[in-house]
Amino acid sequence: MTLKLYFDFLSQPSRALFIFLKLNKIPFEACSVALRNGVHLTDQFKTKFNRFQKVPFIHDREFKLSESVAIIRYLAREYNLDNKWYPKDSKKQAQVDEYLEWQHNNTRAFCALYFQKKWLFPLLTGESPVPEQLQKFEDNMISTFNNIENIWLADTPFLSGSEVSVADIFAACEIEQPRIAGFEPRQGRPKLAAWLDRVRNEANPYYDEAHTILNKMAKKGGQAKL
Fold it and tell me: Which band of pLDDT confidence, cut at 50, 70 and 90, is reported for residue 225?
């Protein structure tokens, strides 16, 4: 086994990559990185593992690669994947890529910012978020959920068409994250909730495996032991 995935299950793209690898039966060594312990901040980590000091990333023998979307495309080429998760057909692949590119300044940005400002930064600094600022982050996140429902899921059951794809996995992992901070994205959104259920069903048992820690923390208000 030459492929190693370095990840933390509290990282949204880490969960997405873990699920993608499992679904496609790509053999890999799971290398957990405890971000909460700051191991990624050392010079040794930067030199030996990942120059950007973030997760997820992979080592494939001597080849090192970060950035989750780049990793997906690399794996698809290396393992000659051609299925619903990342199709080879040019138009279908472009539809998946369309969401993967869109998410950076939308789903990922706004869900992550809300999570960080509401839960992560107060935990690290001991300072409460400024209500006006937090409301702005929440409004941006809600606007993204509206776009997911009214644009991406307007006429199809999944983000890139009639079949589930890695785009849905990435989106679902991002949308699950605010639950740790006490925000339930399914509440009052039956269309979004139904889509999340479809993605979970298509990606199980690996979806639930990747979200075990998150689900425990969400149930305990973000206070579950890691």
Answer: very low
Q: What is the rounded CA–CA span in Å between residue 213 and residue 150?
A: 30
Strands 3-7 and 29-32: parallel
End-to-end CA distance of the chain: 28
Give, in degrees to the nearest 5, the angle at Cα 215 between 154 and 7.
90
Local structure of 36: helix, strand or coil: helix
C-beta separation of 108 from 12 below 8 A: yes
Q: Write the pLDDT tens digit of every residue in 40-64.
A: 878 888 999 888 889 999 999 999 9
User: Comparing C-alpha atoms, which of 75, 57, 59 is closest to residue 8?
Assistant: 57
Query: What pTM value is reported for the model?
Result: 0.93
- Token representation of residue 12: 């949204």
32: phi then psi, degrees, rounded to nearest 5? -75, 135
Residue ranges of the alpha helices (H) in 130-189?
131-147, 166-176
Distance CA 191, CA 211 (A): 21
Given a contact cutoff of 8 angstroms between Cβ atoms, the answer to whether 29 and 21 are in contact is no
- Residue 66: its H or E element: strand 63-66
Task: Indicate whether 204 pLDDT > 50.
Answer: yes
Gap between the Cα atoms of 101 and 53, Å rounded: 22
Lookup result for tokens 């999944």: 158
Residue 205 CA to residue 37 CA, distance in Å, equals 28
In one letter, which amino acid is 173?
A: C
